[in-house]
Structure formats: C-alpha cells, structure tokens
Amino acid sequence: METYLIKSETTTLKITPEAYHTMIEHGESGFPNEICGFLYGKYSGDEKLITLAKPAENVKEGDQRRRFEIDPRDYQRAEVFALTEGFDFLGIYHTHPNHPAIPSIHDLKQAMPVFSYIILSIQEGKFDHIRSWQIDDQENKFFEENITNLNQNG
Ligand SMILES: [Zn+2]
Fold it and tell me: Does the pTM of the predicted model rise above 0.85?
C-alpha cells in the first residue's frame, strides 16, 4: 500500500517544542479516537517552522478511531486566525491510534496541496512517533517532510 502512496523525495520542517508537546498531549488524551488540529507558523525560504498547534474538533460522525473530519467553518476560522495573528496557516495534524504514522488512502483523498500533514502514532494511549507529509498533487502521492529539529521518538 505504501509504495504507490509515497514518493522518495523529501523536504524539511521544524517544530517548536511547545507545538510538539501540544500535539502529543492532545493525541494521548484523545486516544483511542483520532484527534486533529491546525498548524501555524512561518515559511522561511523553502523551510517551514511550526510554532503553534491548535486543537480542532473532530466532527466525524460515528466511529472516530479511524477517521477525522474538520468542519469547513473551522477551516475558515483557522484562516482568519492566521491572518489576524500574523501566522502562515501551514497544515493539519492528526493521530493514528494503534497505527503507524503513515497516511491512509482516506488521508490522500482529503489532502490539499502545500499543506503539511503531520501524523502522530499513538500506541495504547502513549505517543510513539511522528512523521510529516505533503501531497504532490500532480501525481496524487504524498512525499515525506523530514522533521529536522526533534528527537522524533520522544
Ligand atoms: Zn490518517
């Protein structure tokens, strides 16, 4: 499944410890459901720095252990928030409870160009690992963004 989803190229991304810990706490407290949120920060050259992770509501009806959905109005509010607070709106994070941080077909269908898609794997309620992805909309595949400033296992 992974090979046709994922290209070999990578780009880079940095995450502040504050944003990182927000995502981990949110992901662990939401277990066994998938949680989701918005990522804000700044572009500097072709590198992104994520300085703020802001929890969003998972509005998926029914079983939330394998899916998340964000209300379109919350996307609009997130755009306004970024503008008024002087951030770049950089992407979305979500969790994979008891699954690796590899995007699913469902994630691919929902992904928007340019955005970073950070996935945190939460194993039995504890953070396990984090990876970040971006879509290549020409080929409809993800490529990985290397997170360069974290010990990605803790
Ligand atoms: Zn997913």
Answer: yes
CATH architecture of residue range(s) 2-147: 3-Layer(aba) Sandwich (3.40)
121 CA to centre of ligand 1 in angstroms: 10
Domain ranges of the chain: 2-147
Q: In sequence order, which residues have a C-beta less than 8 Å from that of residue 154 and are 6 or more positions away?
A: none
How many whole angstroms from 142 Cα to the centroid of ligand 1? 12
> 97: Cβ–Cβ under 8 A, 6 or more apart, which residues?
31, 32, 33, 34, 65, 122
Q: Do residues 126 and 76 make contact, with C-beta atoms less than 8 angstroms apart?
A: no
For the segment 81-98, the average pLDDT, to the nearest whole number, is: 97
pLDDT in tens, 15-53: 999 999 999 999 999 999 999 999 999 987 778 999 999
Q: How far is the CA of 144 from the centre of ligand 1 (A)?
A: 14
> Are residues 153 and 126 in contact, defined by beta-carbon separation less than 8 angstroms?
no
Q: For residue 82, how far is its CA from the centre of ligand 1 (angstroms)?
A: 24
Query: What is the pLDDT at residue 151?
Result: 61
| pLDDT for residue 20 | 97
